[in-house]
Structures are given as C-alpha cells and as structure tokens.
Automatic annotation (TrEMBL):
The keyword Transmembrane does not apply. Pfam families: GntR, UTRA. Residues 9-77 form the HTH gntR-type domain. This is Transcriptional regulator, GntR family. One of its GO terms (molecular function) is DNA-binding transcription factor activity. It comes from Sediminispirochaeta smaragdinae (strain DSM 11293 / JCM 15392 / SEBR 4228).
Length: 245
C-alpha cells in the first residue's frame, strides 16, 4: 500500500490501515513480528514519530503487543466471555473449542477470612474450603481462580481431583447444589509480582479482577470466588436489555 499524501486521511492512519489489512488477510498471523518503527519509517517514507503513532494506536486497540527488547508482535485474539448465563470456566472454554487444564496452588480447610465470612454470611471462624487454581486454555495460563465454600456444605470436597474436573459440575452432580444466581464485581487493575509470574505476564500488566458470590435457592450464599484474568487474552461482554416502562 502506498501513502496517498493528497488524501484527507492522516498518514499515520493509512499506515495503521495497511498493517490491519495484513492481519485481516492472514499475511500477518498471531505471534508474527511486524516491521520495526525504523523499517516502517523507511517503507512508507515518513517520520519515525508517524510510524510510532500508527503502531501505538494498534497496540492500544489490542491488535499488537510490544515486548520490551524484542519488538512488536501481532496479538493473539482475546477469549471472549459473553455473560448471559451462569457457567464455570471449564464449560465456557470447552464450548469455544479450548482444552482446559488446571494446576492446584492451594487446597485446604481454613477459618473463613473476614471478607469471605462477610460475603457468605458466616460467623467469624467458620471453616471453609479454600481452593486456588491456575487455569489454562490450550496450555496457556489465562486466570488464577480461588473459591471458598463452607465445609458443612460439601464435607469431602477436597478428596476430588480438581486438576481435571469441574467444580461446578461437582456441585450439581455430587452435592446436588444448584447455583441459581451470582453477583459479580469487575475491576481493571495491574498485576502484582506473584500474579504476573503465574500468568506469565509482566509485572503491572493490565488484568481483570472479578469477585463473585454465588447463591442457591432462596438466596442462600454458597460460594465466594475471586479471579484474576489476563487482560491481553480475555474479554468480558455483558448483554443488557432496556427495562420496559
């Protein structure tokens, strides 16, 4: 693509569209390294600042990712979670064609921390199961997920294999606990050192934090969970409907 210097379209935007066209056509694939800013400068006969502006906008829009000391690469498409019905990570990912696996980080009984006791409406010191896992999609770490469940609800919960199995399937099939509703809070934040190491991202990289309280029938709190999703690989969609009247 040649730059049309008579056009009203800014030069940097024409460069951006040229790179996007290569991505859309498949000439540039996820993981491919694009031309450096000096190479773009020479190719399009523009200033380095103009080339940088084109690349920066594509980075900001999620099409490219900069890797310090290595260059700029085509970003992998984000995994999309369209939030219309309640479901777990495993079911959601498998429905999209991903192979799901987990690594157990914590699995034990503990006295409920204050924030858990508050969410689940428990007395202080009530024992809960704490299950913390690193979840993978096609062997790529996507989310750190931890769940807190009162021990009296599922007495032998920790005897099950959570590296392969689904926690929510177990709730339904083994314990006959049907989660009816869930309340979630979402927050954009930055990865601390521990989170970054587990998710294989840079410290302070953007992540999506979600906490969820799940309820059985009659609004009985059953599970409290917290999740830290990679911001570069996960996208959360919510469908809203206008209330009539």
């Amino acid at each position: 693509m040649k730059i049309d210097r008579t056009s009203h379209v800014p030069v940097y935007y024409q460069i951006k569209e040229s790179i996007l066209a290569e991505i859309s056509s498949g000439r540039l694939k996820p993981g491919d390294k694009i031309l450096s800013e000096p190479q773009l400068k020479d190719k399009f006969e523009v200033s380095r600042m103009t080339a940088r502006n084109a690349v920066t906008e594509l980075v900001n829009e999620g099409y490219l990712v900069r890797k310090q000391g290595y260059g700029t690469y085509v970003q992998k498409p984000r995994i999309e979670n369209t939030q219309e019905k309640f479901h777990g990570f495993k079911a959601d990912m498998e429905a999209k064609g991903f192979t799901v696996s987990s690594r157990i980080l914590e699995s034990k009984q503990i006295p409920a921390p204050d924030f858990v006791a508050s969410a689940l409406e428990l007395e202080q010191g009530t024992m809960v199961f704490w299950l913390k896992r690193l979840r993978f999609a096609n062997n790529e770490p996507i989310v750190i997920h931890e769940s807190y469940i009162p021990t009296e609800c599922c007495p032998d919960l920790l005897n099950h294999d959570f590296e392969k199995g689904s926690l929510y399937t177990l709730f339904t099939t083994t314990y006959k606990k049907i989660i009816e509703t869930a309340v979630e809070h979402l927050e954009a934040t930055a990865a601390d050192a521990e989170t970054a190491a587990l998710l294989v991202i840079e410290k302070k990289a953007p992540i999506l934090f979600i906490d969820r309280t799940s309820y059985l029938k009659e609004n009985i709190p059953f599970e409290y969970s917290r999740s830290w999703y990679r911001g570069d690989r996960y996208m959360f969609d919510v469908t809203l409907q206008r209330q009539q009247g």
